[in-house]
């Protein structure tokens, strides 16, 4: 059995300087010139316009590759943890077995059938920075080369199945597979004695799965958030506070009263 299973969202990385996804400054609430994030962060966009997709992805996310973990990540380092975050900060904090259910910024995978098993590889973003300042055209060229995307006979840029690479990030129109360790995540939920949600808006599928599992198993849950979502369930305990305050309090007390 797992005594406590923690499921974290973007709120836990806010103290590290990473914007939340659905807050006022969030990645999914701030649009781009031509497309909303929900349109851009899709497998469809990667397949149809890989140059635009990769440029958007690199500028929006890769710049956070050197961000460091905060006190919440460090407190969670020895816990059973499923995170929605792709920043990799839990790994940097020392958690060797956490499940990054939506992927990681510092990894790439082969562009292939979503159900095909594979192991992510290092993204090595530093190699791009070593090339020095690049204008838009040259940066796109470097990214296309890095992701092994070439022009087809008709001149279109088309990722090739089994050859091209894609970011190890679950896109809006993709689904959970064991590349993202979904079976392992669900097995943890099914043996947890309590599930604790920290810094999540409950607008993501993995939180719905965890919440449904907790209710079916009739186990207690806790919700940690400055503005916690109210759940129609009689075994909920709310902690209206930031993740750092909660973890600091837990660090001083072996059990919450």
**CATH architecture descriptor text of the largest domain:** 3-Layer(aba) Sandwich
Number of strands: 9
Which fold name fills CATH's third level, the topology of the largest domain? Rossmann fold
What is the CATH class name of the largest domain?
Answer: Alpha Beta
Shape descriptor: globular
Order the strands across the largest sheet as they lie in space.
3-2-1-7-8-9
Number of domains: 2
| CA-CA gap between termini | 22 Å
Largest sheet: 6 strands, parallel
Estimated share of beta-strand residues: 5-15%
The low-confidence parts are 22-31
Give the name of the CATH superfamily of the largest domain: TPP-binding domain
What does this structure look like?
The chain is an alpha/beta fold and 257 residues long. It folds into two domains: 1-18 and 69-102 and 176-257, 3-Layer(aba) Sandwich (Rossmann fold), CATH 3.40.50.1220; 23-66 and 115-169, no CATH class. 31% of the residues lie in helices and 14% in strands. The protein contains ten helices and nine strands. The protein has a six-stranded parallel β-sheet, with helices on one face. α5 (89-92) links the parallel β2 (80-83) and β3 (99-100). α3 packs across α7 (136-146). The longest helix has 13 residues, at 205-217. It is globular and about 60 Å long.
Lay out the secondary structure:
Blueprint: E1 5-8, H1 37-40, H2 43-48, H3 50-61, H4 71-75, E2 80-83, H5 89-92, E3 99-100, E4 103-110, E5 121-122, H6 126-129, H7 136-146, E6 165-169, H8 182-191, E7 195-198, H9 205-217, E8 221-224, E9 236-239, H10 243-252
Parallel strand pairs: 1-2, 1-7, 2-3, 7-8, 8-9
Antiparallel strand pairs: 4-5, 4-6
Helix pairs in contact: 3-7
């Amino acid at each position: 059995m797992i005594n406590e299973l923690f499921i974290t969202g973007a709120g836990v990385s806010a103290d590290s300087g990473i914007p939340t996804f659905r807050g006022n400054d969030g990645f999914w609430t701030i649009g781009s010139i031509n497309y909303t994030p929900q349109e851009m962060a899709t497998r469809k966009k990667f397949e149809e316009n890989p140059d635009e997709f990769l440029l958007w992805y690199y500028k929006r996310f890769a710049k956070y590759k050197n961000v460091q973990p905060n006190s919440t990540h460090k407190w969670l380092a020895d816990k059973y943890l499923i995170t929605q975050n792709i920043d990799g900060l839990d790994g940097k904090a020392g958690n060797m077995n956490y499940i990054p259910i939506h992927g990681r910024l510092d990894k790439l995978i082969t562009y292939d059938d979503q159900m095909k098993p594979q192991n992510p590889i290092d993204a090595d973003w530093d190699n791009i920075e070593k090339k020095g300042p690049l204008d838009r055209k040259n940066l796109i060229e470097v990214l296309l080369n890095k992701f092994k995307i070439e022009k087809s006979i008709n001149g279109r840029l088309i990722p090739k199945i089994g050859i091209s690479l894609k970011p190890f990030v679950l896109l809006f129109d993709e689904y959970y597979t064991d590349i993202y360790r979904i079976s392992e995540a669900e097995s943890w939920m099914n043996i947890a004695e309590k599930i604790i949600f920290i810094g999540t808006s409950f607008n993501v599928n993995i939180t719905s799965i965890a919440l449904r599992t907790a209710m079916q198993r009739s186990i207690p849950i806790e919700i940690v958030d400055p503005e916690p979502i109210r759940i129609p369930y009689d075994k909920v305990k709310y902690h209206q506070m930031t993740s750092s305050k909660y973890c600091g309090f837990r660090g001083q007390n072996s059990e919450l009263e």
